[in-house]
């Protein structure tokens, strides 16, 4: 029935009415906060390309997480910045590595805060790639053992969940097998199932000092034009034992998030990555956008596409704004 009988504006008349009919509701419970930890004490090193983001030592990380915990953010994604690097990423699976130390400290201080660990090698390798290198090529199968050892060391330290981000074939199965064989059957895996070789990762590479020393990561991360391939990758990770699957980045891949949501019943995460964060921050600093409104609109869009879990550097600000309400 046409206008004037049908008037959609009736349901937009005031904040209470809009809340009543709102289809997608962003909540603090949807958010995970990615953080970077490095060696030393009293370290709070700003990441120039990501205003408001820092490399923390373990002690300052605990200071940062106090308010985060009070805001009710369910958990963090922990990335490590080692003191030294080598060809086989020894710092990644060292039981006294920086991530392992941080896990123990965070779980002691904030036992109810979920600690999820990024399982990859690029931050720890001298060449900056996510696997073992031979003759200039990233070898898949020899890398699996190192990834499994890394995930196992994180579980031993007390991680609540491990999140392989390397995009090696078969890594979820290798990690699941290693965890199960050592008594960590209850540690879930959040797989970066559809991780694209994206231009949006630039600021992260500054934060993690993880840029490749030669070539790029296109031989193992996904080709940006492909969407059907993402469904195949997600299916493989689910079949190998992934408990949660992830699409990364988020904004340029909202269609992929929606396709994955429609195809699978698994919990679905999306990573609102460093470049997406940095662009919002840069525009906000220029006064070109309303940061609060843009952030909340962006995160709501990611959820509306189908993601139940959103990893975002905006998490503390977004949590505060959500608590303040409209």
UniProtKB/TrEMBL annotation:
Alphabetical list of Pfam families matching this protein: ALAD
Domain of life, source organism: Bacteria
GO CC annotations, alphabetized: cytosol
Sequence positions that bind 5-aminolevulinate 2: 274, 313
Pathway: Porphyrin-containing compound metabolism; protoporphyrin-IX biosynthesis; coproporphyrinogen-III from 5-aminolevulinate: step 1/4
Residues forming the catalytic site: 195 (schiff-base intermediate with substrate), 248 (schiff-base intermediate with substrate)
Entry-linked InterPro entries: ALAD, ALAD_AS, Aldolase_TIM
Keyword match Nucleotide-binding: no
Catalysed reaction, written as an equation: 2 5-aminolevulinate = porphobilinogen + 2 H2O + H(+)
Binding site for Zn(2+): 120, 122, 130
Binding-site positions, 5-aminolevulinate 1: 205, 217
Cofactor: Zn(2+)
Molecular function as annotated in GO: porphobilinogen synthase activity; zinc ion binding
Protein keywords: Heme biosynthesis, Lyase, Magnesium, Metal-binding, Porphyrin biosynthesis, Zinc
Residues engaged in binding Mg(2+): 233
A Gene Ontology BP annotation from the UniProt entry: protoporphyrinogen IX biosynthetic process
Zinc-finger recorded as keyword: no
EC top class, as a word: lyase
Record EC number: 4.2.1.24
Purpose: Catalyzes an early step in the biosynthesis of tetrapyrroles. Binds two molecules of 5-aminolevulinate per subunit, each at a distinct site, and catalyzes their condensation to form porphobilinogen.
Family named by the database record: Belongs to the ALAD family.
Alphabetical list of NCBIfam families matching this protein: PRK09283.1 (NF006762)
Assembly notes: Homooctamer.
Annotated protein name in UniProt: Delta-aminolevulinic acid dehydratase
Species, as recorded: Desulfotomaculum copahuensis
């Amino acid at each position: 029935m046409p206008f004037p009988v049908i008037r959609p504006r009736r349901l937009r008349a005031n904040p209470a009415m809009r809340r009543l009919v709102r289809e997608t509701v962003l909540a603090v419970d949807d958010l995970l906060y990615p953080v970077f930890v490095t060696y030393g004490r009293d370290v709070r090193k700003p990441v120039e390309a990501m205003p408001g983001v820092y490399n923390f030592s373990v002690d300052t990380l605990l200071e940062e997480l106090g308010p985060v915990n009070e805001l009710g953010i369910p958990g963090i994604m922990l990335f490590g910045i080692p003191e030294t690097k080598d060809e086989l990423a020894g710092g990644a699976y060292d039981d006294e590595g920086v991530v392992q130390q941080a896990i123990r400290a965070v779980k002691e201080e904030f036992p109810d805060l979920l600690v999820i660990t990024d399982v990859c090698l690029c931050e720890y390798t001298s060449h900056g790639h996510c696997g073992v290198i031979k003759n200039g090529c990233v070898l898949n199968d020899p890398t699996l053992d190192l990834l499994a050892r890394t995930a196992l060391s994180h579980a031993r330290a007390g991680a609540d969940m491990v999140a392989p981000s390397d995009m090696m074939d078969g890594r979820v199965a290798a990690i699941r097998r290693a965890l199960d064989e050592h008594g960590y059957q209850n540690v879930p895996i959040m797989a970066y199932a559809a991780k694209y070789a994206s231009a949006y990762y630039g600021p992260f590479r500054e934060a993690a000092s993880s840029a490749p020393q030669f070539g790029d990561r296109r031989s193992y991360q996904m080709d940006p034009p492909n969407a059907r391939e993402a469904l195949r990758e997600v299916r493989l990770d689910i079949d190998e034992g992934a408990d949660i699957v992830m699409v990364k980045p988020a904004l340029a891949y909202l269609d992929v998030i929606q396709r994955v949501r429609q195809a699978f019943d698994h919990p679905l995460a999306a990573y609102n990555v460093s470049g997406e964060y940095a662009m919002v921050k840069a525009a906000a600093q220029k006064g070109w956008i309303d940061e609060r409104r843009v952030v909340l609109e962006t995160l709501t869009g990611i959820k509306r596409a189908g993601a139940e879990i959103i990893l975002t550097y905006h998490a503390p600000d977004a949590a505060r704004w959500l608590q303040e309400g409209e």
